[in-house]
């Protein structure tokens, strides 16, 4: 069968992203820039388009302007209305009751009319804030072959991270036996590897009729948190066919998946990309990551040395996007976004400079995230003096300094 005719996709993109503050001060979490030229949600959307799934609802809620604008500017051209394809951004509307989204299941329930109108055989539910590359067709095929009511995408993660995720215990048949939502202690470990746990990726394939029935029943329960992980999945395990689907990325063994819900996780996922052979491959022509394509000029590095021999435009082990100019500065192990300018004698190390950042002369930036359009005055130092940084900027638990937009500089 043609999957595009039998599958609706719902992307949950309405979370506050409080642990990514101040990057989420003015934007939704899925709209946070990533890897220089992308937004976080581009990875989920690219997986959909590359998988041939083009009936997509994006459920937004908080600070959704930049997210909606990004989808309108960058994604509409991939969809053909005469072919029954679409991507719709649906803000929280209080269509059911007078509350905003109270949980992941409630977000879908409040838009249940979309499922009723389409009545496709399957509904694929995704998160808009994870970084990975996956062909969803393989998971849907697995779901069909198992005759499942619900299939949950899973990936092994270190046992130390168990309290951040839904943890699953599965039988050899891959049917789910038990589910723990963010356990504080005694998580289910993998049978042959007690150092790892099997984590829910927040990727669900439902038989649509089953999903609708579960949502309606859940909405009646006052004690429910109306969440897939806390409520829907544990209940379905008791009386439905619920399976796990082991994550298979497009790169083969040891696939890459990251939940970038914190500043440190966000920073680390970006830094993963500057490796010689990153596990998340942005350069695979068979699985492109799409985004808003702007007519940036080529990047360039200028000044091959001055009278003092120190004024050299140099970039090492970094990603540099279009329109960026490294003018006599040095960049190492960093991500330089579009239209960034690094001026003479400045040093950028192990950092992320977002679009439009201007680094004045003689600046030193290390272990930092500098948000869009920040202008660092000449001589500014970031990431070298923790006490001084703490007085001016936000600092993550892992010590990453975040220079927010509109930060005042004396």
Protein architecture, described:
This protein is of the alpha/beta class and 410 residues long. The chain has two domains: 270 residues, Spore Coat Polysaccharide Biosynthesis Protein SpsA, Chain A (Alpha-Beta Complex); 104 residues, UDP N-Acetylglucosamine Acyltransferase, domain 1 (3 Solenoid), CATH 2.160.10.10. Helix content is 21%, strand content 27%. The chain contains nine helices and 29 strands. A seven-stranded mixed sheet has the order 5-4-1-6-11-8-12. A six-stranded mixed sheet has the order 16-19-22-25-29-28. The model has no long low-confidence stretch (mean pLDDT 93).
Number of strands: 29
Biggest β-sheet: strands ordered side by side in the sheet: 5-4-1-6-11-8-12
**Share of helical residues:** 10-25%
Structural class: alpha/beta
The CATH class assignment of the largest domain is Alpha Beta
Tally of contiguous helical segments: 9
Rough shape? globular
Compact description:
With 410 residues, the chain is α/β, with parallel strands linked by helices.
Secondary structure elements and their pairing?
Elements (H helix, E strand, L loop, with lengths): L6 E7 L19 E2 L3 E2 L1 H10 L4 E6 L4 H10 L11 E6 L12 H6 L2 H7 L3 E6 L2 E3 L3 H11 L3 E9 L7 E5 L5 E6 L14 E12 H12 L8 H12 L2 E5 L10 E3 L3 H10 L27 E3 L11 E3 L2 E2 L4 E3 L2 E3 L2 E2 L4 E2 L4 E3 L2 E2 L4 E2 L4 E3 L1 E3 L4 E2 L4 E2 L3 H7 L1 E2 L5 E3 L7
Parallel strand pairs: 1-4, 1-6, 4-5, 8-12, 14-17, 15-18, 16-19, 17-20, 18-21, 19-22, 20-23, 21-24, 22-25, 23-26, 24-27, 25-29
Antiparallel strand pairs: 2-3, 6-11, 7-13, 8-11, 9-10, 28-29
């Amino acid at each position: 069968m043609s999957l595009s005719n039998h599958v609706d996709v719902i992307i949950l993109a309405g979370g506050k992203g409080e642990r990514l503050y101040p990057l989420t001060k003015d934007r939704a979490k899925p709209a946070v820039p990533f890897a220089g030229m992308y937004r976080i949600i581009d990875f989920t959307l690219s997986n959909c388009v590359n998988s041939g799934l083009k009936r997509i609802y994006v459920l937004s809620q908080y600070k959704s302007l930049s997210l909606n604008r990004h989808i309108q500017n960058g994604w509409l051209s991939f969809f053909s209305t005469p072919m029954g394809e679409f991507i719709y951004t649906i803000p929280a509307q209080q269509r059911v009751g007078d509350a905003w989204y109270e949980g992941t299941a409630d977000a879908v329930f409040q838009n249940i009319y979309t499922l009723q109108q389409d009545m496709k055989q399957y509904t694929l539910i995704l998160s808009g804030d994870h970084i990975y590359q996956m062909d969803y067709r393989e998971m849907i095929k697995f779901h069909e072959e198992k005759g499942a009511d619900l299939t949950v995408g899973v990936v092994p993660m270190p046992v130390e991270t168990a309290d951040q995720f839904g943890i699953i215990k599965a039988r050899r048949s891959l049917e789910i036996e038990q589910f723990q939502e963010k356990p504080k202690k005694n998580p289910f470990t993998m049978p042959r590897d007690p150092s790892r746990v099997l984590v829910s990726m927040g990727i669900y394939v439902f038989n649509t009729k089953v999903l609708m029935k579960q949502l309606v029943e859940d909405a009646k329960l006052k004690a429910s948190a109306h969440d897939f992980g806390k409520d829907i999945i544990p209940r379905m395990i008791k009386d439905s066919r619920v399976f796990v689907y082991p994550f298979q990325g497009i790169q083969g063994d040891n696939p890459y998946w990251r939940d970038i819900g914190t500043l440190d996780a966000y920073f680390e996922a970006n830094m993963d990309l500057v490796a010689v052979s990153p596990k998340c491959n942005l350069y695979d022509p068979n699985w492109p990551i799409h985004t808003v394509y702007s007519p940036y000029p080529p990047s360039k590095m200028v000044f091959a040395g001055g009278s003092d021999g120190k004024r050299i435009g140099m970039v090492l082990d970094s990603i540099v996007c279009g329109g960026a100019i490294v003018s006599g500065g040095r960049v190492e192990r960093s991500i330089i976004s579009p239209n960034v300018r690094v001026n003479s004698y400045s040093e950028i190390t192990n950092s992320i400079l977002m679009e439009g950042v201007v680094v004045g002369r003689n600046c030193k930036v290390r272990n930092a995230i500098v948000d869009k359009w920040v202008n660092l005055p000449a001589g500014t130092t970031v990431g070298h003096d923790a006490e001084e940084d703490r007085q001016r900027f936000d600092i993550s638990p892992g010590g990453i300094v975040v220079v927010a937009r509109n930060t005042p500089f004396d």
